[in-house]
Design a protein that fits this description.
Blueprint lengths: L3 H14 L9 H12 L4 H22 L9 H14 L2 H16 L6 E3 H10 L14 H11 L6 E3 H13 L15
Antiparallel strand pairs: 1-2
Helix pairs in contact: 1-4, 2-3, 2-6, 5-8
The protein binds calcium ion (3 copies).
The site of one calcium ion (CA) has 8 residues, from β1.
Amino acid sequence: MLKPLQQRKLIRLFNIYDADNSGEVNRFDFELLAYKLGRGKPWSVLRDLKAKYLDLWRELREIADKNEDDRINLDEWLEAYDKLISSGKLEKVILDLTQGFLQLFDADQNGHITIDEYFDFAIAYDLFGDPYQAGSFPHHKFEEAFTKLDLKQNGYIDLEQLRQLNRDFFYSDDPSCPGNWLFGWY
Ligand SMILES: [Ca+2]
Ligand SMILES: [Ca+2]
Ligand SMILES: [Ca+2]
């Protein structure tokens, strides 16, 4: 059974992946995320991003689309994560997620996520609003989130920390846990 805090975070994650705010997650959301992330980048980069996100979508559909209608609604989403967590299968998902996250957002590929790289993630996934629109992006909240995630307070997040933050995001029932902030406020 998911605890209330876990559930709240998973609903937050659902809303992030529901990029077009249609109330369900489907392949269009993943295409949209790829386009947002690839905006202004060369075609070959965008093409690879699209392929990556479609793979991600297929994996998620496999896990969560219980009634096989090519859409994941919130009930299916929560049930899938509940099962992944209770069966212990989430650990593998977290390892894949962490690796994928570094591939996508560690722009200079040095194994560390800096605040600038986290900023790209925040924009693509619309974690805090549009930073280029006046009044839309609470920059103190964004910086506060990164400061919480920067567990060693050394200005970046490394692979091991990222795994820990992901684990805490999915498992932790402690409101003061830094990993809760991985996808912005919740
Ligand atoms: Ca959607
Ligand atoms: Ca479905
Ligand atoms: Ca980096």
